[in-house]
Amino acid sequence: MLSIRAAGDPVRVSVCHCLDCKRRTGSAFSWNATYARDQIEIAGESRSFTRGSDDGYWARFNFCPTCGVTVFYEIERRPNMISIPAGAFADSDFPAPLIEVYAERRCPWLQAFAPEEA
User: Fold this and answer.
1) What are the φ and ψ backbone dihedral angles of 30, each rounded to 5 degrees?
2) pLDDT tens for residues 22-62?
3) Which of 3, 69, 84, 116 is the most buried (most CB within 10 A)?
4) pLDDT 10s digits, 89-108
5) Distances (CA, A) of 36 to 1, 10, 81, 82
6) Domains of the chain
């Protein structure tokens, strides 16, 4: 079984509305926490698949071969960073996203993203 541990706070918490993230999650968007690689400890066997993004960069998704859940991913544009789907933390108090990606593809029934001022 593949597992991951994150130490400290994420560098960023974001939502993505790109079509690939919608397909990957089966939802209207993906909710992700990104950490520096040195904040992450990975244990167990994984399988991965790599796909291109709308901008032509790659994203590599690592999933558990036992249950099929995407546990973490890396993207070419953020070297030395690991992103984890926020749902993997199973924490209803996980921080809200402050960054929105591909907002132009947001489902029209979702409210406009309005992060709190820092």
Assistant:
1) -110, 150
2) 988 899 999 999 999 999 999 999 999 998 877 788 999 99
3) 84
4) 888 899 999 999 989 999 98
5) 23, 8, 5, 6
6) 3-88+95-102 (3.90.1590.10)
